[in-house]
Structures are given as C-alpha cells and as structure tokens.
Amino acid sequence: MEDNNQKFSAEQSLQVIQSMIQKAKQDVIKNSFYFLLWGWLVFITALLNFVLMKFTDIKQPYIVWNIMWIGVVASIVKGIKEGKAEKVKTYLGDTMKYFGISMAIIYCSFAFIFGKYDLWHYSFPFYILIYAAACFFMGSMMQFPLLKWTGLLCIPIMIV
After folding, report:
1. Cβ atoms within 10 A of the Cβ of 131, count?
2. Is residue 30 situated within a structural domain?
C-alpha cells in the first residue's frame, strides 16, 4: 500500500491556507445576496407587522408575513442556479446553506403551528427571536460584528 501523505513545504502550506481563506471570503460575498434579501424582507415585514399590530385595527396583522414567499422563490431559483455552477464546497458555505434550510424549516413549522392553533397574535416575538438568533449565529460564523449586533438589537424589539 502506498503512502499518500505528501510533505508540503512552508510556502506550499501557506498557499493552501491562503487559497482556503480566499474561497471562504468568496463564499461570504457570493451569499451576500441571501443576507440582503432575507435581511430586508424580514426587516420590512416585521416593521409592517409591528405597525399594523400597534397602530391599526387590523385583526390579522401577521398576514404581511406572506411577503416571505418572495424570498423563498428567489432563494430557490438562485440556489438551483448556483448549485449547478458550484465546483468547490467549503465548510462555511455548507454551514450557511444548511443553517438557511434549518431556518426555513423552523419558520414554516411555526407558521403551521400558529395557523393550526390560531396563535398568530403570539407569533411576532417568536419570529423576531429566530431572526435574532440567526443574525447572531451567522455574524459569529463569519466574524462579522455588525451582523452579531443586529441579532442582539432585535431582542428589545421582540419584547415590545
């Protein structure tokens, strides 16, 4: 059996590390579409929900959360296109992908539960809590302090 353990020179090792760092940075840049899309969708929808809940007589302010379907369709279409073109996978890229899928499962599950048991008037703090946790987690994974602070600053909004 032959030994596949190659000895790298210090320069080769440095090149491998630099290329991996560069690929991780490209993953963050590539996924900025999703951060911007979902960040703005959640922000606008939460703001509309809050305004309708606090300042109007609308009985179902949660209905604005249907705006999220725009993000679902856009993410699926873009994800399919990118999946076909992706040649190299990274840990960060996979983490972001599966975390996003997990968030979608949680949001959809809450929507089903809130709808089935007519608990929509309790939904706002739960959705904001999930959003806050997602922002904080992804900000930590990417070492992006602004995203972490966004998550932390959602906590007072959740309580109001």
Report:
1. 23
2. yes
Could you tell me the residue range of the domain that residue 45 belongs to? Answer: 24-79+119-160
- Alpha helices of 56-90 — where are they, by DSSP H? 68-85
Maximum Cα–Cα distance across the chain = 76
Please state, in angstroms and rounded to a whole number, the distance separating the CA atoms of residues 73 and 58. Answer: 27
Flag whether the pTM goes above 0.85: no
Cα 92 to chain centroid distance, Å, stands at 13
- In-domain check, residue 159: yes
Cα 45 from Cα 15, distance rounded (Å)? 45
In this structure, is residue 149 part of a structural domain? yes
**31: in domain:** yes
Label residue 70 by pLDDT band (50, 70, 90).
very high
* 133 exposure class (CB count in 10 Å sphere: 0-12, 13-18, 19+): middle
In the chain the first and final C-alpha atoms are separated, in Å, by 66
Query: Total domain count for the chain?
Result: 1
Alpha-carbon distance 126 to 133, whole Å? 11
pLDDT in tens, 137-151: 888 887 788 889 988
